[in-house]
Structure formats: C-alpha cells, structure tokens
C-alpha cells in the first residue's frame, strides 16, 4: 500500500518538474557531528543563525519541526544553464553572478511545487482512508530555509555523493541542482541506497581545492565559509575583510569556481526549467558601472524575482565596489566618487577602498574630501586608510 503510494508520489514529483526524487527516514543526518564541530570552529562566520539553539534542536530532532514526522521526500531540480562565453566571463568590467541566480528565484519555483506535492499527498491519503485521527497526515516543506542538512539527506536519498568541494555531486549530472524537502507524517518506505566501496567519489582529484580563489578549503570536504566568496557576497551583511577583497575578482553574487572545475560537471545538461534559462547575458554578468549606479528603485525593478533581491541594494553595490577596485580601471572612478556620499556607510567605505585600489589622483582627492564629513567609524577608517596609503 505505502510502496504503491510512494511510487505514485515519485511520478507526481516528476510531473511537477523535479529531476530527482528520493525518500529517506526522517532522522537526523549522519554528518550532524561533523556539522557541530564545524560550528564549534566558527567556520560559519557571521551566520549566527546556524548555531542558534532552536535551530540546532530542530537539526538534532526532526520531530521538533513536525511532530509525528516519519519520512522525508527529497527532491532535486537542475539549474545548469550554459557556460558563459570566455570574453564575457573574463571581462573585468562585468560583475559575475553565480549560475544559480541567473533566472527567477528558485524558492518561487520550488516551494509552490513542494506544497502542491504535499497537498496532493494529503488528498490521496484522505480519499483512501489511509490515516486515522490518532495519525493525522501533516507535512512541511523546505527549500534551504529550514534547519535541515539537506545535502546529506540528498546523499542518503541516492542523489550522489558529497565531494571535496562540499557539494552534493550526482555522478551522471554534476552538482548544479537545487534541493528541497517534503517532511511528512506518513510512513513512506525509504529508498534502500547502499553506497559501497565502488560508489563514485572524488578519488585523487583536488581541482576544486586548488582552484578556489580565496583558499576557502582548509582541508578536503571542509569549507571555511568565512573565506568563501559566496558567503562574502551574499551572507555577510557587513564589511568584507580587506585582505580577501583582492582575491574576489569580479564575482558580485556567489561564485561558481569550485563547481565549474569539477570533472563531474562535464555531464551537466542545460536545465529544462524555463525560469532558469538565460535570456540575456547581462543577467549573468552585468556591467559594473550599471550596478554602481543602481538606486533603490532600480534595484527593486531589476531583481524583483531574482534570488539577488534578498541581499538588498547596499550589499550588491558593496560587492560591485570590490569588483570595480579589482578591475582597476580609471573608467570606474567617476562612477565610484558619488558613492562616497551614499546613504549606506557600507557602500561609502567600500567605494573608498575601490578608489584606493584604482589609485587615480581624482579618486584619492575625493576620498580625502569625503573623509572630513564622514561620521560612520568604519567608513571613516576605510577612507582614512585609503588617504594614508597615498600620503
Ligand atoms: Fe572557493 Fe568560490 Fe567555492 Fe567559495 S564558491 S569555496 S570561494 S571556489
Ligand atoms: Fe571532487 Fe575533483 Fe569535483 Fe573537487 S573537483 S569535488 S575533488 S571531483
């Protein structure tokens, strides 16, 4: 009975557009211990919410998330789009955006589908009288927003293996896919995924470890988020450490390097998901000067349905300032100077850094002038550092 329902569920999930579906028991991840050690080492940086006691309680016991939960349906959705033409990807006057954010926000795509899957499941079990008052059917869906180690559950569901770059890698399709989960109180039979010694693995490959621009892997399978460009450009709300800025190149939202070099991603095929396809190269690598000129209204209009909207305008312009500094072109100076008066201290300070990195006299003079009026301590320190470097 439950086995047949599970098969129907898988077919329904595929019909909803998911590329991978698997069922695992709703128990904590086997790697929870390693995760707790990672937190102890403070490699999560400023993502303090990851270590919050209520979050940890949920990771340690999924019953806290959904009382009576028995099964977890894991789904994957491909997002690989295409390789950017080299003349675009390597153009330092453009800011690069991680492939996963080229299209519409994946939460907007995946969450309604998972909810539809849950509603379908509820309707079916009620129609077939498969639940009782004592065991009511209930579900909860997650798309990287909950306290679930979804990559590890995806591995248990047979999607692939976790590589040295800490990504979940499907041997036949690579690692460019999103994960989501449907927790349910129903006792769906789990997939029996036995990963033996012959299971695919990284073997002796170390490409991702050596290719990382910021040296964010202290050892294989361990990411120090504090050095990762994805963390620095997306998760970090404050000041980007000055020693890491020159290593970030022109990445302004995320970073794809450790996935792009992975040989398993040779097998990636472009997604069939219309919302993720690239309609315009500007969505993958917009002009830095255009980004620096973004005001709040422009940001809202441009990124309304993109995952980029969550970092808000100031953080995106902060990132663009760092990329402009790394570009190093005098062309950027006249666009950076007005940002020394920006409403956000974060933008003012990073603009000062960029002008210092470019080193044109006009920019340094503007920083010295702005320094006199600057009231924010950190922005002031950034400006003072730039001015002193040229005195
Ligand atoms: Fe390094 Fe980029 Fe991978 Fe982060 S996303 S670990 S910065 S290669
Ligand atoms: Fe593993 Fe090599 Fe891929 Fe890194 S690049 S995840 S070492 S296979």
Characterise the protein shown here.
- With 391 residues, the protein is an alpha+beta fold.
- Helix content is 39%, strand content 9%.
- It is built from 16 helices and 8 strands.
- It has helices at residues 2-15, 32-40, 53-60, 86-89, 106-127, 150-156, 207-211, 229-235, 257-260, 288-292, 296-303, 312-327, 333-336, 345-358, 361-373, 377-389, and strands at residues 20-25, 71-78, 96-97, 139-142, 161-162, 168-169, 177-184, 251-253.
- A 4-stranded antiparallel sheet has the order 1-2-7-4, sandwiched between helices.
- The model has no long low-confidence stretch (mean pLDDT 92).
- Residues 163-165, 202, 205-208, 261-264 line the site of one iron/sulfur cluster.
Counted by DSSP, the helix tally is 16
Distance from N terminus to C terminus (CA atoms, Å) equals 79 Å
What are the segments in which pLDDT stays under 50 over at least 5 consecutive residues?
A: none
Roughly what fraction of the amino acids lie in strands? 5-15%
Helix-strand category: alpha+beta
What order do the SSEs take from the amino end to the carboxyl end, as H and E? HEHHEHEHEHEEEHHEHHHHHHHH
Task: Sum up the structure in keywords.
391 residues; alpha+beta; four-stranded antiparallel beta sheet; two-stranded parallel sheet; 16 helices; 8 strands; binds iron/sulfur cluster
């Amino acid at each position: 009975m439950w086995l047949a329902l599970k098969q129907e569920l898988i077919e329904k999930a595929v019909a909803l557009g998911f590329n991978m579906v698997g069922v695992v028991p709703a128990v904590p991840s086997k790697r929870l211990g390693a995760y707790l050690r990672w937190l102890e080492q403070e490699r999560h940086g400023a993502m303090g919410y990851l270590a919050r006691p209520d979050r940890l309680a949920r990771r340690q016991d999924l019953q806290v998330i959904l009382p009576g939960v028995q099964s977890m349906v894991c789904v994957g959705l491909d997002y690989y789009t295409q390789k950017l033409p080299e003349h675009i990807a390597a153009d330092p006057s453009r800011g690069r955006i991680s492939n996963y954010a080229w299209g519409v926000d994946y939460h907007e795509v995946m969450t309604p589908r998972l909810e539809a899957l849950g509603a379908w499941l509820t309707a079916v079990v009620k129609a077939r009288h498969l639940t009782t008052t004592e065991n009511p059917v209930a579900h909860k869906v997650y798309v990287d927003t909950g306290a679930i180690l979804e990559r590890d559950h995806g591995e248990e569901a047979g999607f692939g293996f976790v590589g040295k770059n800490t990504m979940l890698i499907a041997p036949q399709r690579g690692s460019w896919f999103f994960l989501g989960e449907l927790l349910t109180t129903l006792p769906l039979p789990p997939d029996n995924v036995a990963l033996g010694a012959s299971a695919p693995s990284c073997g002796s490959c170390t490409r991702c470890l050596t290719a990382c621009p910021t040296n964010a892997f202290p050892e294989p399978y361990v990411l120090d988020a504090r050095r990762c460009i994805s963390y620095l450009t997306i998760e970090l709300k404050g000041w980007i450490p000055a020693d890491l800025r020159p290593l970030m190149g022109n990445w302004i939202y995320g970073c794809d390097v450790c996935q792009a070099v992975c040989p398993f991603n040779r097998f990636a095929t472009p997604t069939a998901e219309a919302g993720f396809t690239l309609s315009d190269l500007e969505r993958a690598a917009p002009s830095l000067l255009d980004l620096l000129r973004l005001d709040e209204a422009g940001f809202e209009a441009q990124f309304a349905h993109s995952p980029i909207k969550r970092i808000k305008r100031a953080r995106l312009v902060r990132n663009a300032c760092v990329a402009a500094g790394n570009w190093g072109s005098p062309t950027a100076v006249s666009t950076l100077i007005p940002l020394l008066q920006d409403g956000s201290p974060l933008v003012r300070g990073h603009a000062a850094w960029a002008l210092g990195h470019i080193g044109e006299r006009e920019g340094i003079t503007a920083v010295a002038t702005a320094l006199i009026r600057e009231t924010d301590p950190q922005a002031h320190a950034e400006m003072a550092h730039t001015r002193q470097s040229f005195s």
